[in-house]
């Protein structure tokens, strides 16, 4: 009997051990908040959990997002925007204050599992014209000093998310990788500092941008299951640009004496709109290949151990700058409201799960009036006005609404403005060119939005706070009246 029990226990341990070996590494993603109608943070956190994301990167210390992540079991990388680098670089006390307010307080008071502070966001992009060259490293040093002072340096590591343009290869092969000559010495200082503090380097890799920037780029090489001719680099063969790009960085690290520095892929993904190459089909193909790699624990030829990879991104952001391109607002795996764009196998046969508990504005749209003419002299200015305040990036060539005729183009623009303005009275008035309809004008790939009703997502506690604030304000006014202030 005893031997039998021991045998079963041994078998159980073996089964559990095999399960541990095969356990899927947690999924990570970016959560951006530049939206005119953001999802309630608690809904986003549930969306993360429902879809197996246990790591998330925030681009700034958003209070609502951080509070919602408290005691969620999700590990957090919290970002410092580039415009804060200068004050943090010039003052250790400013860094101490920032860490206290945006790290220590959330860890101790709200149970947020903050693991990294990301100092800046791609600060060495060539388009920034050296704006942040003098402030990034000092800010990094000061934040690290502040974490040490707060007693958090073992738990919370610093990093700098950099674009892949900080390294290059003159040979065109990963083995020729090295850091850009103009920032080589600065990169060495940062990398040595990260190495000494046992912190990772974070790199953003965008195969989509490689494809988008070069008309001669082999399209299939952008995907993980592509049929493009492989790139042979000595004894190594590369079949996709992600691996080649990552290993170019590893070669640069090896060449400069840091072969073992930990690396995180901070952003990688594929947009679904705003460009002919940005569509749901391509995004599904790329992101499914990426998730399969993560699920299988697959590294690269030079780094067999897979890095943490943060998918970019969770949800669309209709208020982002379109300077890089109209696609910039469409990187989300989910639409702005947490609805599913396309299906993905998230591992173990689990499909994507949409956001729960989302409340919408009334089911009505603003469209061009049937009585209005497309030759009306006010039409062009009306469309221009609407699109200057609302997101019309889906109307571009090769985009999801690029199929529309002139009348439906106007309807799309009018509706985006109407929804962005929360369907307020008078927001569907374009020189007598528009009317409100209850018939959904969506067609084919073009989705006419109805925005989230932000008012319905106010919690009882926030309403109570407003009532309390209003009451206190009234009491203060009464006291001032009594004392003759008015």
From TrEMBL:
Which interval of the chain is the signal sequence? 1-21
Q: What SUPFAM superfamilies does this protein's entry cite?
A: (Trans)glycosidases (SSF51445)
Q: What class of enzyme is it?
A: hydrolase
E.C. designation(s) = 3.2.1.39
Q: Which UniProt keywords apply?
A: Disulfide bond, Glycosidase, Hydrolase, Signal
Location of the X8 domain: 364-448
Query: Which reaction is recorded as catalysed by this protein?
Result: Hydrolysis of (1->3)-beta-D-glucosidic linkages in (1->3)-beta-D-glucans
Top-level division of the source organism's lineage: Eukaryota
User: What Pfam families does UniProt report for this protein, alphabetically?
Assistant: Glyco_hydro_17 (PF00332), X8 (PF07983)
Which family does the record claim for this protein? Answer: Belongs to the glycosyl hydrolase 17 family.
Q: What protein is this chain from? A: glucan endo-1,3-beta-D-glucosidase
Q: Which organism is it from?
A: Hevea brasiliensis
**Taxonomic classification:** Eukaryota, Viridiplantae, Streptophyta, Embryophyta, Tracheophyta
